[in-house]
From TrEMBL:
Signal peptide: none annotated. Keywords: ATP-binding, Hydrolase, Nucleotide-binding, Transport. InterPro entries: AAA+_ATPase, ABC_transporter-like_ATP-bd, ABC_transporter-like_CS, ABC_transporter_ATP-binding, P-loop_NTPase. Coiled coil: none annotated. GO terms for molecular function: ATP binding; ATP hydrolysis activity. It holds the Pfam family ABC_tran. Its EC number is 3.6.3.-. It comes from the Bacteria. The lineage of its organism: Bacteria, Pseudomonadati, Pseudomonadota, Alphaproteobacteria, Rhodobacterales. This is Cobalt import ATP-binding protein CbiO. Residues 5-234 form the ABC transporter domain.
């Protein structure tokens, strides 16, 4: 694994005493999409701003592409593209001039080929001569991404890319980000939306009260959560699991009124047919059956319990 960003024991205490980040360790892999999920005030923006060098760090180290973002600030910063939460475009400027200007801010001249390929990749090439005020909301957000990619960074940060946008635009943004990843861009995004992390990320990091609670491959997390409960409500409560049902490892709940079978949705078969066949031979009468599933939301809520709303 190559780490493009490496965060070591990062602490941030704002003037006034807020301890926004506590001993954060994080490695971001080249080519991945990492979603940082956390409730309001968890420290997501502070973490991004510390990595990007916008906010000073209190202690610890951040390296971007091997460059320390304090002692080697310019080199570290040049590797980063940052897409802010707010759309902050010059309304009367053309798309082309907007991205050229951003590139110039990093002291880079030329690069028209790069800018052309970025605009094409983001489906903005036919809008290059349009003023930004004439663009749709989705296009404006894509211009922000084009600006952030104008100086050829290695890693792109998106701070809540879909905050306050409608469902259609949100899906459009998900597709754009997936496409960027397919073109080799490393993406770190922050979000409140669990379904957004689920839709886009290769890995998910959960941050709460300034601490990273967990960083896991999404697929591993999902397969862990892929467990489902098949609940059999009995007409008469049972005092024990009948011998014939022992292989199914059932649990009794609700004072024996329910038998619970846990199965893995990612496996080949659920085993429910075999269970029901075995059940019919026991003489137990079934009132009803239902299924329940644990979700990423359950885990998330468990991890950040007691904090602001997500
Ligand atoms: N400039 C600042 N000065 C003092 N405290 C700050 C400053 N910026 C953020 N904080 C505090 O640091 C903590 C983390 O805030 P941060 O904005 O990083 O969280 P967040 O996870 O991005 O939240 P949100 O999802 O609401 O944007 C909060 O308690 C916040 O009030």
């Amino acid at each position: 694994m190559t780490a493009i960003v490496s965060v070591e024991k990062l602490t941030k205490q704002y003037d006034g005493g807020v301890h926004a980040l506590k001993d954060v360790d994080l490695e971001i892999r080249e080519g991945e999409i990492l979603a940082l999920l956390g409730p309001n005030g968890a420290g997501k923006t502070t973490l991004i701003e510390c990595i990007c060098g916008i906010t000073s760090i209190s202690s610890g180290h951040v390296r971007v592409g091997g460059h320390d973002n304090v002692t080697d600030y310019r080199a570290a910063r040049s590797q980063i593209g940052l897409v802010p939460q707010e759309v902050n475009l010059e309304p009367f400027e053309t798309v082309w001039n907007t991205v050229r200007f951003s590139r110039g801010l990093f002291g880079k001249s030329g690069g028209d080929d790069h800018l052309e390929s970025v605009l094409k990749q983001l489906s903005l090439w036919d809008k290059k001569d349009s003023q930004t005020r004439a663009l749709s909301g989705g296009m404006k957000r894509r211009v922000l991404i084009a600006k952030a990619l104008s100086h050829e960074p290695k890693v792109l940060f998106l701070d809540e890319p879909t905050a306050g946008v409608d469902v259609g635009l949100r899906k459009e943004m998900w597709n754009t980000v997936a496409d960027l990843r397919d073109h080799g861009v490393t993406v770190i995004l922050t979000t409140h939306y669990i379904e957004e992390a689920e839709a886009m990320a290769d890995r998910i990091g959960v941050i709460s009260k300034g601490e990273i609670k967990l960083v896991r491959d999404k697929d591993a997390l999902m397969s862990e959560l892929g467990r489902k409960l098949f609940i059999i409500e009995l007409a008469e409560p049972a005092t024990q699991i009948p011998e014939a049902l022992q292989p199914f490892d059932l649990a009794l709940q609700a004072d024996g009124a329910e038998m619970v079978y846990t199965y893995d949705t990612t496996g080949d078969g659920t085993g429910i047919t075999r269970l029901m066949t075995a059940l019919s031979g026991t003489g137990l009468k079934v009132r009803d059956v239902r299924t329940e599933q644990s979700s990423l939301e359950d885990i998330f809520v468990g991890l950040v319990e007691g904090e602001g709303r997500s």
